[in-house]
Design a protein that fits this description.
about 400 residues; alpha+beta; SH3 type barrels; Fumarylacetoacetate hydrolase, domain 2; 2 domains; about 15% helix
Length: about 400
């Protein structure tokens, strides 16, 4: 596709992408927008110009604080809206080209949480990550628990503390069991960690009692985001037996503002890892269900340059999204538009592809050296963590922008 709008060569937001988000500006209240190059296209302003006249859409759907109502239109409509925008941006005679007010520079808008998140589930689907954690905290010879290769392990997380990229986070406090001690103490965590994850957003609701097959699962997934599921490893270590994560995870998770549709990611599908032993019938699937998405994480100390500490890829995931959704609903659990499902930490086989400081520093035993000579085992106050992700195939590039947040001292 050839477009008349200027798009920098390495932009995540190419004509092939057309991701959706919620933005506002000094003169415009929150509304649906599309990222294109370095600009934001105001979808409500485009609607007023009549380019969607063949699609029935209520104004409140586009002039809205969240994407939920837009997503609930269904893929038949949202995909058509995306295609119309692409066509208009490639049409030299488009009415959009004549109306500059439709576009705003990205650096002049404020991005908002894209969805009302009703429920949030965090999976644990990277075999490399699960193996590394098991080797550190359990038997190195039997790092994976017996159930891990039979089902996509997950837990239900906290939605109220999921925040938009750019919002800082205060260092959490909680109970910690010091080494060689029998009793816990209360203190600020000194093992704050990032977790490199991606999330997918539910685009279609179900009723309780029904389940979604792997064959139908993609119909229920609207799109994907970058996700940093912050962890306090010392708090988590003391609390997680027997029921799993709680205060060590619920203090914050950061989400990127732009939602990239599954349709935009279609060219980047790849074959997933071989699953042995064979999974139960409801978890079997056909075709390619993993995605080749390049990921990176950087640490930037206050007033200093950033250092990339991890290069990973979403294609490494052992359990894919359709299996996660099939397992999530197999017991009759219903899902709703705007629900968020996170992948779990994304780690590869090489030490430079690990998706957390826990792994990169191997539990604090192997400090990482940053560009300025400083060392890190975990995240220190005023460090900013930034995650980026993009797909590239031939001349097609589709990216997610970034999710970023700074750690501030405890309150």
């Amino acid at each position: 596709m050839k477009t008349w709008i200027h798009i920098p060569k390495q932009s995540d937001f190419s004509i092939y992408n057309i991701p959706f988000g919620i933005f506002s500006s000094k003169k415009r209240k929150p509304r649906v927008g599309i990222a294109i190059g370095n600009q934001v296209l105001d979808v409500f302003a485009a609607y007023k110009l009549g380019i969607f006249k063949k699609i029935k859409i209520k104004k409140r759907v586009l002039k809205n604080n969240f994407l939920n109502d837009f997503i609930a239109l269904g893929k038949e409509k949202t995909t058509k809206i995306r295609e119309i925008i692409q066509q208009e941006l490639c049409n030299e005679n488009s009415i959009l080209k004549e109306n500059n007010a439709v576009f705003l520079p990205q650096n002049e808008v404020q991005m908002h949480l894209p969805i009302v998140i009703g429920d949030y589930t965090d999976f644990y689907s990277s075999m490399e990550h699960a193996t590394n954690v098991g080797m550190m905290f359990r038997d190195p010879e039997n790092a994976l628990l017996p159930n891990w290769k039979h089902l996509p392990v997950g837990y239900h997380g906290r939605t109220s503390s999921i925040i938009i990229s750019g919002k800082p986070i205060h260092r959490p406090k909680g109970q910690v069991l010091p080494p060689n001690e029998k009793h816990p103490i209360f203190k600020a965590s000194n093992r704050v960690d990032f977790e490199l994850e991606m999330g997918f957003i539910i685009g279609k609701s179900t009723t309780i009692g029904n389940h979604i097959t792997t064959h139908k699962a993609e119909e229920y997934i609207f799109g994907k985001v970058l996700f940093n599921d912050w962890s306090a490893r010392d708090i988590q270590k003391w609390e997680y037996v027997p029921l799993g994560p709680f205060l060590g995870k619920s203090f914050a998770s950061s989400i990127s503002p732009w939602v990239v549709t599954l349709e935009a990611l279609e060219p980047f599908k790849v074959k997933g890892p071989i699953q042995e032993p064979e999974v139960l019938p409801y978890l079997t699937y056909e075709g390619f269900k993993n995605y080749d998405i390049n990921l990176e994480v950087s640490i930037q100390p206050k007033n200093k340059d950033a250092t990339v500490v991890s290069h990973s890829n979403f294609k490494y995931m052992y359990w894919n999204m359709v299996q996660q959704l099939a397992h999530h609903t197999i017991n009759g659990c219903n899902i709703k538009v705007g629900d968020l499902m996170a992948s779990g930490t994304i780690s590869g086989k090489s030490t430079t592809s690990y998706g957390s400081m826990l792994e990169l520093s191997w539990g604090g035993k192997k400090p990482l050296k940053l560009a300025d000579g400083e060392e890190r085992t975990f995240i220190e106050d005023y460090d900013t963590i930034t995650m980026k992700g993009y797909c590239i195939k031939n001349d097609i590039r589709v990216g997610f922008g970034e999710v970023s947040a700074q750690i501030l001292p405890t309150l």
